[in-house]
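Dear colleagues,

As part of the handover before I leave the project, I'm documenting each prediction I ran so the next person doesn't have to rerun anything. This entry is a single chain, and its sequence is reproduced below.
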Amino acid sequence: MIFIAGFLAFYLAWNLGANDVANSMATSVGSKAVSLGQALTIAAILEFSGAVLFGQTVSQKLATGVIDVNQFSGQNDRFVLGMLAVLLASGLWMNLATWFGLPASSSHAVVGAIAGFGLVSLGVGAVQWSSLGVISLAWILTPLLSGVIAALLYFLVLKLPDAIPFSQLQVLSACGVAFAHGSNDVGNAIAPFADILAVIQTGEIPISSLPIPLWVLAIGGLGIVGGLAVWGKKVIATVGEGLIALEPKGGFCAELSTAIAVLSATFGGLPVSTSHALVGAVVGIGLVQGEVKWEKVKAIGLTWVMTIPMTIGLSAGLSWIILHWAR
C-alpha cells in the first residue's frame, strides 16, 4: 500500500511540476532572464527548501481542514483508500491540463478531490464547508492582491533608471517565487501521502498533527523537478508568452508580487494557487502596458473554474469504485 501511495504521490508531484512549477517559472523563461535549464536548477533547490522549511502548515490544512477527519474514527481502511483516490484524481486532472498547456491549480485539484472523497464516504456532513469557504476566498483574493502589487511595482519600475539590469533582478525574484511555491504548493502532493503513511505506521488517523518524513518530501521534490524538465514547456509558453509580451522589468514585478502574495498566504496556513497569483500579476502588468490577450485569460479562467467540480467528480467516482472494489 505504501508503494502504491508513494507512486501516486510522485505522479501528482510530477504533474504539479509540469504545471504549477512551470507557470511559477514561466515569466523568467518567457522574458529570457533565465534559460529552461537554469529554471530547473532554481526550482530543484528552492522548491525543495520552501517545502522543508514552511510546508508543514499548509500540508496540515489540506490534511485536516477540508473534511472532518474525526468522522473517520475506526474507519482507517476507508480513509486510506479515499486518499489514494485523491492522489489519483488530482494527478489525472493536472495531467490533462498540462497536456493542453493550461495552468491549472494543484491547490484547487487536491481540495476538490478531498471534498469529493468526503462526500462519497460520509456524505455532505463530512466536508468542513466553513473552512472550504475561507480557502475559496483566499483563491479569489490572491490574484487580485498579486495583480495590484504587480501593477504598482511595474509603474514604479518604469520610472526608475536602469541602474541594475531588473534581468539580474529577475533571477532573484524567480528564486523568491520558487521558494514561495515550494512552501505552499508542494504540500498538495505530499499531504495525502503523509496521511496514508501516518495511518499505516501508527494505526490512527492524524487529527492534531501530521508528521512528514524527509524522504516523503524528497519524493515530492524529485517528482516536481522531473515534471518541470520533461513536460513544463507547454505551460511556460502559455503564461510566459501567451498573455502579454513580457520583458525583464515586467517579469521581475510579476514574480516579486507573486512571491509576496503566496508567502503571505503560507504564513496564514492557507493553500492558495501560485498560478492564480502569477496570472493575476501578469494581467496587472498587462493593464499598465495596455495590452492583455483576453482570450487566453478566459481559457485559463475556465480551467480554474472547472478544476473544483471536475476533481470532486473524479475523486467521488474513483472513491466509489475503490471502496466497493475493496469490499
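The chain has one domain: 2-322. Residues 2-322 form one domain.

All the best with the project,
I.
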